[in-house]
Amino acid sequence: MSAALTCWLTLSACGRPVVDAPVVVDCSPPTLRDPDLLRGGWTATGSAALTTGAATFTTATMCDHGGVQQRFATTPVACAQPLVLTLGYALKDGDRLNFALGVEGGWNAPLLSFSGSGSRTSQICLGTRLFDGGAATLFLGAGPNPALCPAHGGEGLALVLQHVSIDVDAAGLCPTPGRVRNSDFEAGATGWTLINRGGEATIQVEAGAGGSFAAHLHTEHLCETPTILGAAALPTSTIVPHPALRFWMRGTDNAIASVRIGAPLPAVSTGVTTVVGTNAPVRTSVCVPRWAQGTVQPLELALVDGQYTQHCATASVRDFAFDDFELVSEPACADANVLDPGFEQAALAHAPASSWSVERYDDVPGSLVTMKVDPSFAHGGQVAVVLSTTTPCPRASVAADVTIATPVGDAGPAVVFWYKGGPGINTGLEVSLSALAGLVKLPAARPQTWTRARACLDPHLAGRPDLLRFSIVSQAGGTCTDTFATEMFAIDDVELTTDEACPAR
Predict the structure, then answer these.
(1) Which of these, 443, 497, 448, lies nearest to 468 by C-alpha position?
(2) Helix (H, G, I), strand (E, B), or coil: what is residue 363?
(3) Is-contact 505 459, C-beta < 8 A?
(4) Residue 403 and residue 391: Cα distance in Å, rounded?
(5) pLDDT of 211-250, one tens digit each?
(6) Cα separation of 119 and 115, whole Å?
């Protein structure tokens, strides 16, 4: 644990004189008004409907990002402890949907599902945004559900909330604020879930730092996807400047593993950072995205296949071990909606793992993603990313976890970036983001001239996580065995910001 966080949790004066005076602090959990939705303590947004004893979300609510919210008093920092949001709800038998829980800018995305009849209770770990001694807004609503929006195939869906309360984590589900639960694995699998999926996911002795216990992933073939799941109680940047998750690892040379902060969603696969094995033990860091700060998030460790067309009998022997997770301050981790807007981490020595995931495959050698370190080529700084292909079936993209900007006055959220290259005869540049209001129309540009592009985003998703991806895509015919002269696009200086030309509400 960092010194700043230790100071915060222990209420030490951090170098200032300490006055020995008794302080009586009420550490009861924050109290929500009207937990059973009977007396009007909640406000509905979008098409959410409040009736006596229930808040009902229909398919329309999922699509207009509606929900219910209330403002409540938080507790003092001295009361920092694991808390849970207890949620009583009902869905139709067999239904499942991505939910959204927001507390003052920190977001969780639990998956709600239902089978049988009656009601179900779920508990979701809450984080440090509840301990500033002031006030916070709780929002409960819909996450990204692309199977329902535009509304088709799910018109009959209805989620009914029947109870919402904040409670002490009596069952021990959640990590201590500022920590990863069982971060050194010395308590075995306590706090972690091991999923083999054809490979091996274990807690192994003598695999970690100094011969200690470690999380261990192993495969023999492609298509094997062992995974280890844990949880991290993340600080805000106010508590720990430039928050990052630091850990020890050792992996097979050139094997790729992923460290994901946040729950994987069908529509938005958030928080993925990839690391590459070198056969040697190393310590590295993953930056904590802005939307996750001050929350408790799932932590997923997995292996990444480097083949697009997977032949599952193909040998692929890989080992990866992880140990000693801790939350630290990492100066290279920007407190921004895009953690590495100019791809500059590629040029830094001892930088944290890049927040941009390079998505290319060994069996598609005609498609490449390159972090080009060349100040004369980049739009700003030293680095730009280059997507290139020689085939009409390109498999090359770069993606990053981002936070949708919060409107400022009449300026709404937007994605802004600079690009050059193309227009190719065979390919184009595609930009994907769940919050996009429509397709990104790239301004006409000369191939060697940097050009600014901008697209508006849905203001209802302000502050939430999203996955931004740039891909080189085919826009002509042909088969995947055809080839042509190299076509490329370069991208630099990516921002998730606000723009007066974009709607703020």
Answers:
(1) 497
(2) coil
(3) yes
(4) 33
(5) 999 999 999 999 999 999 999 999 999 889 999 999 999 9
(6) 10
